[in-house]
């Protein structure tokens, strides 16, 4: 990537991290006390997330290898993966930050079309797996926990939302979605002329990117399901972070504790993604943890502790990712 662009991403990320650190709703003493209370479990959480990022990098590596020669190493992809998620966390509407960064990093090595299609495929698979994760949580709640009329309506609405999302992604995998996405942008006020001109000027490139997106599903189902499995298992493993913290508060290391962790994370991530325009979903994630833990009969203090530890962990990897931007 051009050094100027590297410096721009680095400065944007650094500025966002400083602003977020200075505007947190809790004091540094509370943050430190929470990390101290977590003890060695906090180190386990950091190790867990290194594994999750490695799984993300492996997903991206499989996608790249399916589209042609892969001149990049797993460790390089891991570095860019961590930095990409850091830029996503530090910028409003993360897909306008992390994904362009990854494309610009990969472009000199595989070309614009392959870089764009592989990054879009990874982002699609990451979100697609999240929809299946939410479906899993809906089924677990409906089967294992009491459901009143209000909760039944919420679960039904969430199921419809997930079903619609899965349907759109399946169509996208079969036919590609870049050309349609540009066409949809044309319906937004002020973007009609830009979308039309861009679609006409880049018609061949956009069509080729869509073809490369569809090829993963049409020509290599084994790679498609391998990447889906990696991302889905990663989402389930992410629930261990919540489980570790529940165990700090005396919860048993049991299947039911893990189920509770899945439900807490699923509800919180859904709520936080609805507020994706806020850097690191400040406030939205904390509210999601508070509501989800309360719904499961846990104390407000537990929800606050979980949200603080997750915030510190994310701040740690955001700082690491921003620093890795400058590493070749």
Summarize the structure.
This protein is mainly alpha-helical and 328 residues long. The protein is 82% helix and 0% strand. Residues 276-284 have low confidence and may be disordered.
Describe the structure.
It contains 14 helices and no strands. With 328 residues, it is an all-alpha fold. It has one domain. The model is unreliable at 276-284 (pLDDT under 50).
Q: Could you give the count of β-strands?
A: 0
Number of domains: 1
The portion of residues assigned to helices is: over 70%
So how many helices?
14
Low-pLDDT residue intervals, each spanning 5 or more residues: 276-284
Order of helices and strands: HHHHHHHHHHHHHH
Q: Span between N and C termini? A: 9 Å
Based on Cα principal axes, name the global outline.
globular
Characterize the biggest β-sheet.
none
Radius of gyration: 20 Å
Global mean pLDDT: 81
Which class best fits the helix and strand makeup? mainly alpha
Portion in beta strands = under 5%
Detail the topology: elements first, then pairings.
Blueprint: H1 3-22, H2 28-38, H3 40-66, H4 74-90, H5 98-110, H6 112-144, H7 149-175, H8 178-185, H9 192-201, H10 203-219, H11 221-248, H12 255-274, H13 284-295, H14 300-324
Helix pairs in contact: 1-14, 2-14, 3-4, 3-6, 3-11, 4-5, 4-14, 5-6, 6-7, 6-10, 6-11, 6-12, 7-10, 8-9, 11-12, 11-14, 12-13, 13-14
């Amino acid at each position: 990537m051009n050094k100027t662009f590297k410096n721009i991403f680095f400065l944007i990320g650094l500025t966002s991290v400083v602003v977020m650190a200075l505007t947190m709703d809790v004091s540094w003493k509370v943050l430190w006390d929470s990390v101290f209370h977590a003890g060695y479990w906090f180190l386990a959480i950091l190790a867990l997330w290194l594994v999750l990022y490695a799984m993300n990098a492996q997903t991206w590596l499989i996608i790249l290898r399916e589209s042609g020669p892969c001149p990049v190493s797993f460790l390089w992809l891991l570095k860019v993966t961590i930095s990409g998620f850091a830029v996503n966390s530090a910028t409003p509407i993360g897909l306008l930050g992390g994904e362009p960064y990854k494309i610009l990093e990969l472009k000199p090595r595989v070309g614009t079309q392959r870089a764009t299609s592989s990054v879009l495929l990874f982002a699609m698979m990451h979100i697609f797996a999240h929809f299946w994760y939410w479906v899993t949580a809906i089924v677990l709640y409906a089967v294992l926990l009491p459901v009143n009329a209000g909760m039944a309506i919420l679960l039904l609405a969430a199921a419809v939302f997930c079903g619609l999302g899965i349907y759109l992604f399946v169509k996208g995998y079969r036919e590609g979605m870049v050309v349609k996405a540009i066409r949809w942008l044309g319906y937004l006020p002020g973007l009609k002329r830009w979308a039309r001109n861009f679609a006409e000027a880049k018609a061949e490139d956009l069509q080729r990117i869509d073809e490369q997106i569809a090829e993963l599903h049409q020509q290599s189902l084994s790679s498609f399901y391998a990447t889906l499995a990696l991302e889905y298992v990663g989402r389930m493993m992410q629930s261990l972070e919540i489980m570790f913290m529940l165990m700090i508060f005396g919860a048993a290391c049991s299947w039911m504790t893990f189920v509770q962790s899945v439900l807490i994370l699923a509800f919180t991530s859904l709520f936080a993604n609805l507020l994706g325009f806020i850097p690191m979903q400040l406030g939205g994630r904390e509210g999601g943890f508070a509501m989800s833990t309360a719904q499961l009969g846990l104390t407000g203090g537990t929800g606050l502790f979980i949200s603080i530890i997750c915030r510190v962990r994310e701040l740690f990897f955001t700082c690491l990712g921003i620093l890795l931007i400058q590493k070749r």
